[in-house]
Design goal:
Elements lengths: L11 E7 L8 E7 L17 H14 L2 E7 L1 H7 L1 H15 L6 E5 L10 E5 L7 H22 L7 H4 L5 H10 L13 H4 L3
Helix pairs in contact: 1-4, 2-3
């Protein structure tokens, strides 16, 4: 079981993102405040779970969380401000939407920017340690996967319903063969010469 909190007595909002390493689509961030005593034996880092398990957990989190929010930062914004800043911006946007006051933020990773006057703690691999971060990782991943599945209908040759925009060989080969779409991150240097270096 994951740790229920970092600092006892605080209302903690866990934050995580999905899609940071993708070549196409947005980065999606989520923030979750879980109630005291929340437990689900399946809850873990979203990358360690099956799609079925993630969807089951998403329903449970949405039903039982004190508050949750999901925010996307577009590929255009990523190109403008870079992926690290976009990931943090997404977390800030998700935190902005929470309807329950919180006094501590738990962030997966080792980088974050101050959010208002709220204390924040970064935790490397935090989505495998703290329940609220894991819950945020579940929401971010499932919401982003849904988006990539929707836009894959527009561009079936890239198989986003399968690779979700990550740099698989199949995705790279499609870029070499068919070029970039309007959803690709141009700042990720996806020109043919660079692609051949992978």
């Amino acid at each position: 079981m994951l740790e229920p909190f970092h600092t006892k007595g605080c209302v903690e909002a866990g934050c995580d993102e999905a899609g940071r390493g993708c070549m196409a689509g947005p980065v999606v961030a989520a923030a979750v405040i879980l109630p005291v005593g929340y437990a689900n034996p399946l809850l873990n880092d979203s990358k360690k779970l099956s799609e079925k398990e993630r969807n089951l957990l998403r329903s449970d989190i949405e039903k039982n969380a004190l508050a949750y929010a999901v925010s996307a930062v577009s590929h255009e914004e990523i190109d403008e401000i870079n992926i690290l800043n976009a990931s943090i911006l997404g977390m800030h946007r998700a935190l902005d939407q929470l309807k329950v006051p919180f006094d501590h933020i738990l962030v997966d990773g080792n980088k974050f920017k101050p959010y208002k006057n709220v204390r924040a703690t970064t935790v490397v691999k935090g989505d495998g340690i703290y329940a609220s971060i894991a819950a945020a990782s579940i929401l971010a991943k499932t919401f982003r996967d849904e988006f990539m599945e929707r836009i894959s209908v527009e561009h079936p040759l890239y198989r986003w319903e399968k690779n979700k925009g990550y740099p698989t060989n199949e995705h790279r080969e499609a870029i070499l063969a068919f070029g970039l779409t309007q959803y690709h991150r141009k700042s990720f240097h996806l020109k043919p010469v660079q692609l051949k270096m992978f």
